[in-house]
Amino acid sequence: MANLIKIILIGRVGGDPEMRFTPDGVAVTSFSLAANRSTRQPDGSYKEEAEWFRISAWRKLAETCNQFLNKGKLVYVEGSLRTRTYDGKDGQKRTSLEVNADRVLFLDKQGAVQLPPEDARTVEGDIEPEDIPF
Q1: In the Cβ-directed half-sphere of 52, how many Cα atoms lie within 13 Å?
Q2: CATH homologous superfamily of domain 17-36+50-127?
Q3: d(Cα 51, Cα 57) in Å, to the nearest integer?
Q4: What pTM was estimated for this model as a whole?
């Protein structure tokens, strides 16, 4: 049986993206994404809670995200989860989950840009988040 690790998120960019380059010259852009979910409380009311995700985009997608994304933009991100281990400031081993983006769609109407098919695809026109089929 084949394996699959896939995550799909729609949310708002939490801060301006940061682009850097690997020693081999490969572009990588990182940004945070906040996705809200509503949970029903015991009294019947609903509470909005934000889940935060760390997103990494590579190569041409990294350049595009760095150029067109900024804090507050609504985006669709599709990718896979990646586990990263690092040493914390206190010397302890830490593990974090990151989303390695394969596809990023810019969902805000203003400033939408169409990209070539081999790169990230951009939604433009009158498509609303509720038009996405999932």
Answers
A1: 6
A2: Nucleic acid-binding proteins (2.40.50.140)
A3: 19
A4: 0.71
Give the model's confidence band at 110: pLDDT under 50 very low, under 70 low, under 90 confident, else very high.
Answer: low
As a whole number of angstroms, the distance between CA 18 and CA 56 comes to 10
DSSP of 39-108:
EE-TTS-EEEEEEEEEEEEEHHHHHHHHHH--TT-EEEEEEEEEEEEEE-TTS-EEEEEEEEEEEEEE--
Q: Amino acid identity, residue 19?
A: M
The span from the CA of 11 to the CA of 69, in Å, is 12
SS3 label, residue 130: helix
Q: Is 120 left (phi over 0), alpha (psi -120 to 50) or beta?
A: beta
Are the C-beta atoms of residues 101 and 77 closer than 8 Å to each other? yes
**Could you give the dihedral angle defined by the CA atoms of residues 47, 72, 88 and 81, in that order, rounded to the nearest 10 degrees?**
80
User: Is the model's pLDDT at 44 over the cut of 60?
Assistant: yes
